[in-house]
């Protein structure tokens, strides 16, 4: 019976990740529609920060939730593409931040619980994730013949992932600082 608790927790983390990503995806589309470079290629993509955040916090359950959300987003009709194309996009959506997480843990000597992550290591993670996400998406878009694929779109997507990730992490950090200051706590978990 003890095996159910970790399974239920992972399922909840997966579903929470999927719901958050879908919400942020559509919100980002609403606020940045005027600066979209091509379908699925944004100069500012705030959900990129959420992707790396969920992968850092929830590991494989977060990545699974991101894949599920991307599949649902594409199924609803974001990309009018075949199932194989949408599956590839979904896999990349979850795999890139997971690879970024493992890059940080294994190459930058960050503990798996992230207790010793520094700003420089977080920026390293964001950069690795942004490069992997943009590169893998663009390779897939080109392979599948989507108009969103190409070197110029790689630059826009990489920039959007970097800017969106830094904005998201900054909002989280300053939000936590604000809450700690207002509640006169040094640790939110106390």
What does this structure look like?
The protein is mainly alpha-helical and 190 residues long. It is 74% helix and 3% strand. It has helices spanning 4-32, 47-58, 60-76, 83-107, 119-143, 151-183, and strands at residues 36-38, 41-42. A two-stranded antiparallel ribbon has the order 1-2. Strand 1 (36-38) and strand 2 (41-42) form a beta hairpin. It starts with a helix and ends in a 7-residue tail after the last helix.
What is the gist of this entry?
The protein has 190 residues and is an all-alpha fold. It has 6 helices and 2 strands; from the N terminus they run H-E-E-H-H-H-H-H. The chain is globular and about 50 Å long.
Average pLDDT confidence is 87
Strand content: under 5%
The count of β-strands is 2
The oligomeric state of the chains shown is: single chain
Helical coverage, percent range = over 70%
How are the strands of the biggest sheet laid out side by side? 1-2
Outline type: globular
Distance between the termini: 30 Å
Largest sheet: 2 strands, antiparallel
Give the SSE order as H and E letters.
Answer: HEEHHHHH
Rounded to the nearest angstrom, the radius of gyration is 17 Å
Runs with pLDDT <50, length 5+? none
Number of alpha- plus pi-helical segments: 6
């Amino acid at each position: 019976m003890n095996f159910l608790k970790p399974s239920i927790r992972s399922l909840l983390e997966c579903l929470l990740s999927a719901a958050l990503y879908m919400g942020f995806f559509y919100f980002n589309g609403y606020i940045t529609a005027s600066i979209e470079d091509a379908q699925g290629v944004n100069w500012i993509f705030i959900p990129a920060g959420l992707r790396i955040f969920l992968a850092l916090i929830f590991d494989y359950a977060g990545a699974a939730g991101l894949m599920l959300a991307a599949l649902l987003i594409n199924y609803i009709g974001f990309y009018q593409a075949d199932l194989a194309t949408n599956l590839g996009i979904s896999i990349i959506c979850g795999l890139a931040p997971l690879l970024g997480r493992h890059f940080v843990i294994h190459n930058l000597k960050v503990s798996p619980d992230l207790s010793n992550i520094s700003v420089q290591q977080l920026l390293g993670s964001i950069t690795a994730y942004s490069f992997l996400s943009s590169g893998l998406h663009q390779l897939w878009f080109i392979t599948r013949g989507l108009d969103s694929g190409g070197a110029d779109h790689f630059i826009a997507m990489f920039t959007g992932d970097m800017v969106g990730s830094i904005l998201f992490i900054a909002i989280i950090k300053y939000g936590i600082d604000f809450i700690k200051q207002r509640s006169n706590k040094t640790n939110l978990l106390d």
